[in-house]
Amino acid sequence: ASHNPKEYNGYKVYWDDGAQIVPPHDTKIIAEVQRIGSLKAVKKMAFQEAMEKGLITMLGDDIDQAYLAAIRPMSLNAALVQRHASDLSIVYTPLHGTGITVVPRALKAWGFQNVSICEEQAEPDGNFPTIKSPNPEESAALALATRFAKKRKADLVLATDPDADRLGIAVRKGTDDYVLLTGNQVAALLTYYLLDQLHENGRLPPNAAVVKTIVTTELITAICTAYRTEVVNVLTGFKWIGQQIRLWEDVARAN
Length: 255
Known about the structure:
Radius of gyration: 21 Å
Oligomer: single chain
GO molecular function: metal ion binding; phosphopentomutase activity
Keywords: Isomerase, Magnesium, Metal-binding, Phosphoprotein
Family: Belongs to the phosphohexose mutase family.
Protein name: Alpha-D-phosphohexomutase alpha/beta/alpha domain-containing protein
Organism: marine sediment metagenome
CATH architecture of the largest domain: 3-Layer(aba) Sandwich
CATH topology of the largest domain: Alpha-D-Glucose-1,6-Bisphosphate, Chain A, domain 3
């Protein structure tokens, strides 16, 4: 269901670049679906049988470990984290989704030790029993985590949607109130921090570029202009960002 209500439960299809499918692959798959004249014509197989025949591959902890090892060096200012991580109190909720498998471990690997889990929403469950819609950018979805954060006087509430590709952040305001940041606010803050740290460390390449969707705030463009960084606008959806990344990779390989 991603960040949608449980009625939208389904699955996502990815290509070999790790991004969701784009043309022509999506239209070819749908063409095959439309060839089905009756549900009786759909071939079925028991899950266990498919496993035994090697048609299903289960991803284990080795993949999680490889992912964590890959992102660990991406910290832009380890010294800053070391100075302040112990003082920063974080409450995290996976909203009954997959984020519970790696997000707490990633935060710990980066040095954030003061992380508490909203246990009522820690168990993966496609019925999302504690919320109507698991969209972390909506205050209703963060209600449980926010109440928990107030008890712990946490500084931040972090929430990921069930497939952990969408992030919601609430920050403490005053003694017992929390403000949910919008997606545009989070994007602007992260873009500024990323470019600023790369610039300060002499790691911002002359051909640096930021990809954003056409509906994302133009504040991103203003920030990038200040750091002489190109902005590429794509259609809404992570798959179009992935497509742009692949285009750059293809150009790099060709050169």
